[in-house]
Amino acid sequence: MKGIKLIIHQDMVNYRRPTSFQLRETYPLPPLSTVIGMVHNLCGYQQYESMDISVQGDYFSKTNDLYTRYEFKNGMKFEKGRHQLKVNEFGVGRGIGYTELLVDVNLIIHIIPKDQSKVKEIYQFLKYPAEFPSLGRREDLANFEEVKIVEIQKQELSNERDFKDQWHAYIPINWLTDEKLSIEGEGTDLSGTRFILPKVYELYNLGTEKKPKYKRNWIEREEVLYSGDFIIFEEEIVPIDEEGDIVFLNLEEE
C-alpha cells in the first residue's frame, strides 16, 4: 500500500486534551482526529475520507502561556458587579487562563487513505497547500519540511529496533497484546501513557430542523500507548516504509 509521509516541525503548539479547562493541557503528540482534521481541511473535503494515521515524534520542553478566557451561563442576565461584558441583556465573565505548550516539536506522520486512489490527490494538496498549514490550534503553524509518497509494506525485522532515548510514538495497543515489542522503564515493567484517542466523529442534531444544535458523537476511537522507551523484537512483522521508518498502524484493521 501507499501513503503520504510528512516530516513536520512546529515551534510551539497545543494539542488540546478535551477534558482540560482551567489549564488547557496538551497531548504529547497530535491525536489521530487532529491530523485527520488537518488533512480534510487542506484537501477541502466536505465528506469524511477514511484513513489510517501513524504518529511519532518528540519535543524539547514544555511551557505555559496566558490566554483570555470567557465564561457564561446559558440565560444568565448581566449583573454589573459579576460580569465584565454585556452581550445584549446577557452577562459574560472575562478572565485569564493558562495553556500548556510543547516547544520545538518534530513529527513523522504517515497518512494512509483506505481509498488508495486518493493518495496522489492528498499528496498534491499537502505538497502545495492553499494556505499555511496548522496542526493543533489555528495559530499553531506547521512547517512541512518534507512531503512524499512512500510505499509501505509489512516486513520481518532482521534485527531488533531500539527506540530508547529516540522518538516517542503512539503504539497501537494490539502491538503489546501480540508481544511485538518490549517496553521497559526504570523501576517498572511498562513505561508509557495509555490513551484512548478520538479518531472519527459524526454530527447529530439536538435541536430542530429550523434551529439546529449539533454535537459531536465519536464513533471511532483507538487505544494506544504513548512511549519512547521500547524495543521491537527481531523477526516480528511490522509495517515499514521504503525509507526504513516503522509505521505504527493498528494491524487488526489490516
From TrEMBL:
User: Which one GO biological process term can you cite for this protein?
Assistant: maintenance of CRISPR repeat elements
User: Phosphoprotein as a keyword?
Assistant: no
**InterPro entries the record matches:** CRISPR-assoc_prot_Cas5, CRISPR-assoc_prot_Cas5_N, CRISPR-assoc_prot_Cas5_Tneap
Q: Which UniProt keywords apply?
A: Antiviral defense
- Please tell me whether the keyword Transport is annotated for this protein: no
Q: Please indicate which superkingdom the organism of origin belongs to.
A: Bacteria
Classification via NCBIfam families = cas_Cas5t, CRISPR_cas5
Q: What is this protein called?
A: CRISPR-associated protein Cas5
This chain's source organism reads Enterococcus canintestini
